[in-house]
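Following up on my earlier thread - several people asked me to post the actual chain instead of describing it. Fair enough. Here it is, all 149 residues.
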Amino acid sequence: MRPFPSRGVRSASRSVRLAAYVNAGWMTFVWVQRIRNAVANDEPNPTGAYVMSGAMLAGAAVLVAAATASPESTATRALTRLVPAAHGALWVVRGTQIAMSDRSVPFIAVHEVLAVASIGLAVWAWRSTSAASAAGPEVGAGRGRAATI
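Reply from S.P.:
Thanks for posting it. Predicted structure:
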């Protein structure tokens, strides 16, 4: 019986943790900046900016907490897929709205870059969790023991 996870499982859990941390960091950067812009620009009704930012920051916080506590768990792999996927989906919608709006070219360009980066990171996170799932059973699984969740 091996007391430590195999090299493949350790590498896969590092990959999941890295994808979770990078996505959470990116989300934090984007949405804290959005709050700063809403405050600095004296928007007449910034409620939507605050609600969306709060939801995305909460998702980032949950992602970091899960990846820190148990990067090998099925729940962490699911969160590392779902939170960035939700963020990417938001940018698919918002990026399309912004691209079709009557805004300045630099404004549109900046937001399309944010959209592409967010979607790309979501795809990377999804692929990282797929690789982790393919790496083998979770720590503690095998030899008659159930995998931890």
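Residues 138-149 have pLDDT under 50 and may be disordered. That should answer part of your original question.
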